[in-house]
Backbone:
């Protein structure tokens, strides 16, 4: 990932994405970016991690949040225990500081998914997600949200609390119909689609 290969072609692609963000945002505002995909295993979580990393390397204060309560993974990248996190806050923890953890990298914090739940749907529909982000937005330059994949009621809730949507797709799983549906849902929620990351393509294609 970016921290292991900061000068690689791979990392430079994330620098390009970081540059695009500067044109999309007022520098004085907090920037909540929700990252998702149409299907599982398209690379949304690695994208969230590496975007957080490249922003941190630029001196921004960044918070990464794992909202994929069914398939959490961000804790593995940062070697953070997944015992307490978003699900525990939504279940009753009142003090948000209890679920925010520092990483090994300065100015990069993380909120992991938290305790494993059999059916997290009701929690993911909670208004407390928006309350949490409103309390955190003044503490960070960027908040990167790794959201569950797919089109469902939960996604509508997530879109409502984000400033921008970033969609991660792969050539073999891409569906233009589903992408358009997601774009329309984002626009209806007031969260515009800022762009699409095409994942798992050869270097020549990416250039």
Residues:
């Amino acid at each position: 990932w970016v921290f292991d290969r900061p000068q690689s072609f791979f990392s430079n692609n994330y620098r390009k994405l970081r540059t695009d963000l500067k044109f999309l945002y007022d520098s004085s505002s907090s920037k909540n970016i929700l990252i998702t995909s149409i299907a599982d295993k398209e690379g949304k979580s690695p994208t969230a991690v590496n975007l957080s990393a490249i922003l941190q390397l630029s001196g921004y204060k960044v918070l990464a949040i794992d909202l994929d309560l069914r398939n959490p993974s961000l804790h593995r990248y940062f070697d953070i225990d997944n015992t307490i996190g978003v699900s525990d806050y939504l279940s009753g923890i009142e003090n948000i500081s209890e679920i925010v953890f520092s990483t090994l990298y300065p100015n990069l914090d993380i909120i992991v998914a938290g305790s494993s739940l059999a059916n997290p749907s009701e929690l993911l529909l909670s208004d407390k997600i928006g309350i949490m982000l409103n309390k955190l937005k003044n503490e960070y330059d960027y908040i990167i949200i790794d959201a569950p994949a797919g089109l469902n009621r939960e996604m509508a809730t997530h879109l409502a609390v984000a400033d921008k949507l970033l969609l991660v797709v792969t050539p073999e799983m891409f569906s233009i119909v589903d992408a358009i549906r997601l774009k329309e849902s984002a626009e209806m929620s007031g969260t515009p689609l800022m762009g699409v990351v095409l994942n798992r393509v050869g270097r020549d294609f990416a250039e």
Notes: Residues 203-207 have pLDDT under 50 and may be disordered.
